[in-house]
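User: quick one
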Amino acid sequence: MTVRMICDAANISSGTFYHYFENKTDLIIELFSLIDDYFEENVLERLSDEDELVNVIRFCSGFSEFVMQTGVAKSKLINSMFPVYSKGGHHEERGRILYRELNAIISRGQEKGQIITEYAAEQLVDMILVMVRGYCFDWARREGSYDLVKYTEEMIALFVRGLRPCSAYDLKMQKD
Amino acid sequence: MTVRMICDAANISSGTFYHYFENKTDLIIELFSLIDDYFEENVLERLSDEDELVNVIRFCSGFSEFVMQTGVAKSKLINSMFPVYSKGGHHEERGRILYRELNAIISRGQEKGQIITEYAAEQLVDMILVMVRGYCFDWARREGSYDLVKYTEEMIALFVRGLRPCSAYDLKMQKD
Amino acid sequence: MTVRMICDAANISSGTFYHYFENKTDLIIELFSLIDDYFEENVLERLSDEDELVNVIRFCSGFSEFVMQTGVAKSKLINSMFPVYSKGGHHEERGRILYRELNAIISRGQEKGQIITEYAAEQLVDMILVMVRGYCFDWARREGSYDLVKYTEEMIALFVRGLRPCSAYDLKMQKD
Amino acid sequence: MTVRMICDAANISSGTFYHYFENKTDLIIELFSLIDDYFEENVLERLSDEDELVNVIRFCSGFSEFVMQTGVAKSKLINSMFPVYSKGGHHEERGRILYRELNAIISRGQEKGQIITEYAAEQLVDMILVMVRGYCFDWARREGSYDLVKYTEEMIALFVRGLRPCSAYDLKMQKD
DNA sequence: GATGAATGAGTGTTCATTCAT
DNA sequence: CATGAATGAACACTCATTCAT
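Assistant: Done. Structure below.
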């Protein structure tokens, strides 16, 4: 994805591009912040299920929904640049909005006894984000040839099963 | 990773590089095939546990082991080029060796009743490969700043829990 | 010095700039004419010493005074564009005001016997202007790090010594 | 003077340019060092006159000779970039060769009583270099339309007259 | 008059690739 | 077989200039 390609796609001149963005990296940072907006406007409200593992799945769906809407081209652009540390980690800070939200879900889940406590919430958050981003990366690489949301949901649904603590009975049964 | 950087690292001239590889992509295809060699020499023998889910974990460990040994630089190179479709999907064919092996493990697991059958083996293989590659991608992006094998194992171990079928008792207990 | 920088400094839009100047070169031509105004208002009156070599020094001081007041930024702008031949040498015509004034001083000096006649007045004018402009150029290059007027005066004072004809006595002495 | 122009003039591709120079500035630094070579090979041997003021003139002639040989295009290139401070002032260090040589001449002249001592040698060196460079700059600006060596010599010859100390008699005569 | 978004040719620089030696 | 000088299209980015509002 060159600046020229972006400009051609947007039907603007490269001069105009640089009128709005200081450099190519700036565009990507801008793109990053869009996901926060998307979450605030569309996803956050869906994350209030009693079962926090359901919320985890919805969170991941929201993420992949956004990526699909954003499209293959922009996703590749983001992939090519990630991680971006410029501007004092500004986007990272913003990125933390996503991070904090997922962390909150998992922490609540652990408090409620819905999620295993073998791993710290931070560790689980990292895992899930890597997995979800991994799927997004694959999807863009394959030119968006499959339904990202569906596949992400299936994968996360399975992963989430492993996060559910076994009941005392359950453990007993397994031993037998 | 420019061709010149690769050549400098290998102490050869760029002329020599093009004597052995038709182009840069060819090198990457070559790199791809290395993982098959690695699996054949080091990993395949470890995949004979009675519990096929253990084999899944070992398979993934083998993959990330290889990536760690390969190093950040080469990993980035591969990431930057993947997927490579040239030469009639030649490398993809080779890639199938990996694919087939994991498929075999999961199919056996399903036959033995160790792995759920809600999803076809192919689907599970795809999921796992995407997840593992996702971690490799993240690791390279972060300049190899963590122990890829350890993190991959933890993630896969959790995922694999979700693949274990619940016993009839188990389901009954959960209902109660 | 870009047009945008000039406009920012002047608190106008670049549109406004092009409302008043046909192009960037035009601004510089305008800048050139400022020196004539400066000479007419501030320097000419000082050029009436009986000793024309004193007037030469005052002329050069006036020139460097103007450059210092104009500032490093504008000086660089002028240097970067000089000589400007557009508009039928319009600015050169104006430049001639300066030229003619110095020429007049030197011609008078030669008539009065205060200045050697080995070189035509035109030649001496050219030399002095090149020297003074050379100092201005150096000063701007070095970001205005020294007192341009002082250094120019010292240099010209020395040069002017060489323009004073030796008396008959003087020559005689030197021979002895 | 763009890199492309330089390459066209030299009948090489811009890729080749960057094979030999790390960047445009490097070429200019290279150009700078050429003057030292020129002085060492052609000028230094001429600087052994008994009269140090003669040596000053020869020094300046050597400088302008070099510039004329270098040509208008390269001179403009150098002018456009001077002063260059990169690479730890490497070229400045080299530049000092020139500086030191002229300084030595003038210091000797002052010791021998051939040059006035009102100004420190360093000051006179600075003046002369600014003047000579000023002429070179003017010459390049005017597309090399005159004989730089001749004009520089005339100018310096006059300036040098002012550096000759007046005898006691001389001063007395002037008062009368 | 004044604005500033838009333009696009041009700049320094990179890099996969070629080829004479 | 090996070299590395040479290539030139492509890149991110700049900037004088235009023009609809």
